[in-house]
Amino acid sequence: MATVKRDNRLTSSQSFLCVGFAGVFSKTVTSPLEVVKILSQVGTFHCKRGFINSFLLLYHSEGLRGFWKGNAVSCMRLFPYSAVHLATYKKIVHLHMDELGRISQWRAILAGGLAGISAALVTYPLEVVETRLIAQNCRESTYRGVLHALSRIYENEGFLALYRGFSLTILGAVPFSIGCYVVYINLDKLWQEHHFRFSSLQNFINGCLAAGVSQGLSFPFETIKRKMQAQSPTLPHCGGVDVHFTGMINCFKEVIKTKGVLSLWNGFTANTVKIVPYYGLLFSCFEMCKQVCLYQNGYIVSPLSYKLQPGVDQSLGPQELQEFKRYLRNRKSQTQSSSIGNRW
Questions:
Q1: pTM value?
Q2: Where are the domains of the chain?
Q3: What is the pLDDT of residues 252-291, one digit of tens each?
Q4: Under 8 Å between Cβ of 15 and 7
Q5: Cα 122 to chain center, whole Å?
Q6: For a disulfide at 130, which of 51, 70, 190, 254, Cβ 3.0-4.6 Å?
Q7: What digits encode the pLDDT tens for the residues 76-112?
Q8: DSSP labels for 218-284?
Q9: Transmembrane ranges (predicted)?
């Protein structure tokens, strides 16, 4: 998957905030595509006439507000998800490193998959709420917000309803990881050069390509998961789901029987269209936030450019740089005091 690269010149909190802000911004801008994708997966009436008409039907039935349904909870989920994912990933990678501190590409991708499952386990109730908020008509809403949706689902359907479909997250992680691995082991052949020579643009294209392939392979599992999250006997029209089922296996059977195999990829057009703007905004917004932090830390001369501060060792961490600056200031003050003493 495309991820932002760790910069040791930022503190851990700065890196986390940069990633969080970039994620919120890119999610918010691409929310209309995400809403149409999830509505297509659930199978609501909006998506019966194709990709373009989905936007028109959604606008006529719910207005502009409908394109940002569930975006608040999606952004809210981003911070705990990122925190758990990062902590778990570091722990797993550390356990699988060799004596020289290296790890194979396959083990790194596997670690990413396991970290994703752990993060999803912690934040899954918020994903269920996101699906419910998107599937409902915001002008005739059953749920008034995140807390109201959580309490209503818990009271009417029980605690396990907040984890309905979670097994599909685990199953979907397998083809997702395989897709990432297949792409990354063929990058040298694609670009005709070694991976350590890739430019920023090449790395961006690599990330988008890996996202497209891995999400394409795991998309049927996500489609069934969204249907399971949305379906509820307590909601109008059973949550808007286009098939009725009693469990995961039965859902697969009913979808293939009534809608055909290709319907498992309903919403994939919106998902594919979303990849480039989402990751483009994610990377560019992260870089802008990083520039501000690097300027604040004293590594660059301006928050509007990457021009390095003269005389600053870029290999030093933020704390080391601040300690070095304090040392220079103390040394300068001592030299000045000594000079004044000699004059007297």
A1: 0.86
A2: 12-297, 313-344
A3: 999 999 999 999 999 999 999 999 999 999 988 988 998 9
A4: yes
A5: 15
A6: 70
A7: 999 999 889 888 988 888 887 877 777 777 888 888 8
A8: HHHHHHHHHHHHH--TTSGGGGG-SS--SSHHHHHHHHHHHH-GGGGGTTHHHHHHHHHHHHHHHHH
A9: 106-126, 161-184
